[in-house]
């Protein structure tokens, strides 16, 4: 209980210390916030794009379009032949009439389709392979391409793979940015705490003479780093959320032209908690490095 | 309580501050440490408080050897020792009351109990009415008394005072010596470094006289 009260006392003293120098505090918190908002913003963009691909295609598939004018019996035979292929798990038949209706109902092409007097679409099968890695998919596509009954064979997942690769690159870039800026956060805290230790030299010396343990002396500095990091995290959260709000507002006008529904995602609760926890931890870590680097130099003489 | 055996202290650079010191101070004893400035009085006090370590020989304080004491064990040792400095070492960023509270916060005492004790200590040195004052606004004698209040607030078994009456006129000096006397009466072990002759005659006690780092 007394340990808990001691922590509360240090927490209160630390908050007072932060308020005592509002300009310096605000500046530090802003610097940390801006530094953190860059990788967090990158993360938000990546996540938004990723959710877009998730909406469009979940499992990789191959669409085969049968030549227009092929009779119904022949189409069924082709279906049976596909089912016998060892590489194929199952198939789905997409009759031309159904596809036509669907297309007529769909958003942006509705007007164009309405003008058509006859159905220009072929019958199609959607093929779901047993294994879905890129090489198997491609070899199956090449195999199906050789069938004379098919007009066109399309590997629907190809662009998803390409996008995945781009996203992977983006993720790496964000990770590098996050790593570098985390280091910056640690360095900022390190320096702030170093200056504090220097200005509170007398206090540290007296406390040591009176019998303060290292933990007791370290505690207020660690709290300071922790709280400064946390405030920086909150600043980053506000910067990112504010930017998303602003961008989505304008993005709405832009994407409505393309009849698409893309918008940037807000940080989820889990993401927010992670951001705040991580920034607080980095602040604590910077303070810890600084304290262990500088405190032992102050010994009473 | 405090035991020196063939203690030498040599500072880096070769200056020999203490030479072949052997003596014992028993529990509850009051001892003066006398000698010219530079005779090694401060160094001797620093050895007892583990601020310095002896170069050779052993310094035993409450059974612990200062020469080999672990860094982690020093805080516990110092909580048993009240230190009174010639330059007071008060903190000017807080009130007199908060200065006296510091040892109790370090000791992890309950806040209400600490406040009670801090006021009792301030009362003891006659500064209760100045508890809210910043130490910088106190006179030299008051600062010294505040330093004493801080040293005694957690009731240490040993009090070490380095020239406690150094720059004070005789009225103040007497006042402070009376305070020390009252601690001696309740069984606190006192080691007082001084070169004020009038104090030695007015408040007689055993003297350890140092000359160039050696006992005479």
Multimeric status of the protein = heterodimer
Low-confidence stretches of chain A: none
Proportion of residues in extended strands of chain A: 5-15%
**Helical coverage of chain B, percent range:** 25-40%
How is this structure best described in words?
The complex is a heterodimer of chains A (301) and B (216). Chain A has 301 residues and is of the alpha+beta class. Chain A folds into two domains: 2-56 and 161-297, no CATH class; 62-156, Alpha-Beta Plaits (2-Layer Sandwich). Helix content of chain A is 71%, strand content 8%. Chain A has ten helices and four strands; from the N terminus they run ααβαβααβαβαααα. A four-stranded antiparallel beta sheet of chain A has the order 2-3-1-4. The longest helix of chain A has 43 residues, at 214-256. The mean pLDDT of chain A is 84. Chain B has 216 residues and is an alpha/beta fold. Helices cover 35% and strands 25% of the residues of chain B. Chain B has seven helices and ten strands. In chain B, strands 6-7-8-3-9-10 form a six-stranded mixed beta sheet, sandwiched between helices. Chain B has a four-stranded antiparallel beta sheet with strand order 2-1-4-5, with helices on one face. In chain B, a hairpin with a 2-residue loop joins strand 9 (206-211) and strand 10.
Short description:
The complex is a heterodimer of chains A (301) and B (216). Chain A is α+β, with helices and mostly antiparallel strands and 301 residues long.
Break the fold down into its secondary structure elements and pairings.
The complex is a heterodimer of chains A (301) and B (216).
Chain A lengths: L1 H19 L1 H35 L5 E5 L5 H13 L3 E7 L1 H10 L4 H5 L9 E6 L4 H12 L4 E6 L2 H42 L1 H10 L3 H43 L12 H26 L7
Antiparallel strand pairs in A: 1-3, 1-4, 2-3
Chain B lengths: L1 E9 L5 E10 L4 E5 L6 H8 L7 E6 L2 E2 L8 H6 L1 E4 L11 H12 L3 H14 L15 H13 L5 E5 L7 H16 L3 E5 L3 H6 L3 E6 L2 E2 L1
Helix pairs in contact in B: 3-4, 3-5, 4-5
């Amino acid at each position: 209980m007394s340990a808990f009260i001691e922590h509360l006392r240090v927490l209160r003293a630390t908050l007072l210390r932060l308020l005592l120098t509002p300009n310096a505090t605000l500046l530090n918190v802003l610097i940390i916030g801006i530094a953190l908002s860059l990788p967090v913003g990158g993360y938000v963009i990546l996540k938004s794009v990723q959710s877009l691909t998730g909406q469009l295609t979940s499992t990789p598939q191959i669409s085969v379009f049968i030549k227009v004018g092929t009779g119904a019996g022949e189409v069924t035979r082709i279906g049976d032949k596909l089912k016998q292929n060892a590489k194929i798990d199952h198939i789905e038949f997409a009759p031309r009439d159904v596809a036509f209706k669907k297309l007529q109902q769909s958003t942006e092409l509705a007007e164009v389709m309405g003008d058509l007097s006859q159905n220009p679409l072929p019958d199609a099968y959607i093929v779901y392979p047993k294994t879905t890695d890129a090489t198997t998919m491609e070899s199956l596509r090449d195999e199906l391409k050789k069938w004379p009954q098919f007009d066109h064979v399309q590997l629907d997942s190809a662009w998803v793979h390409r996008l995945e690769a781009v996203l992977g690159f983006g993720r790496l870039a964000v990770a590098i940015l996050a790593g570098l800026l985390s280091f910056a956060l640690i360095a900022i805290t390190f320096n702030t705490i170093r200056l504090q230790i220097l200005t509170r030299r007398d206090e540290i010396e007296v406390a040591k003479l009176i019998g303060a343990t290292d933990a007791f002396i370290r505690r207020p500095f660690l709290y300071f780093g922790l709280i400064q990091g946390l405030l920086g995290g909150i600043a980053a959260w506000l910067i990112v959320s504010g930017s998303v709000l602003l961008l989505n507002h304008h993005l709405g006008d832009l994407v409505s032209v393309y009849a698409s529904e893309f918008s940037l995602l807000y940080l989820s609760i889990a993401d927010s908690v992670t951001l705040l926890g991580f920034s607080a931890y980095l602040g604590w870590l910077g303070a810890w490095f600084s304290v262990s680097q500088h405190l032992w130099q102050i010994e009473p003489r | 309580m405090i035991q020196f055996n063939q203690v030498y202290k040599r500072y880096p650079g070769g200056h020999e501050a203490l030479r072949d010191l052997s003596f014992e101070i028993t529990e509850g004893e009051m001892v003066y440490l006398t000698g010219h400035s530079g005779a090694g009085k401060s160094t001797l006090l620093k050895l007892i408080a583990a601020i310095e370590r002896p170069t050779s020989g052993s310094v035993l304080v409450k059974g612990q050897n200062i020469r080999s004491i672990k860094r982690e064990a020093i805080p516990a040792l110092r909580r048993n020792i009240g230190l009174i400095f010639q330059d007071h070492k008060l903190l000017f960023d807080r009130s007199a009351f908060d200065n006296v509270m510091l040892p109790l916060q370090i000791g992890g005492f309950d806040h209400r109990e600490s406040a009670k004790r801090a006021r009792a200590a301030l009362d003891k040195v006659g500064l209760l009415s100045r508890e809210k004052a910043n130490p910088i606004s106190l006179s030299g004698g008051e600062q010294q008394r505040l330093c004493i209040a801080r040293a005694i607030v957690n009731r240490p078994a040993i009090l070490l005072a380095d020239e406690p009456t150094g720059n004070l006129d005789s009225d103040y000096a007497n006042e402070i010596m009376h305070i020390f006397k009252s601690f001696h009466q309740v069984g606190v072990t006192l080691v007082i470094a001084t070169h004020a002759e009038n104090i030695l005659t007015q408040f007689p006690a055993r003297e350890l006289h140092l000359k160039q780092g050696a006992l005479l």
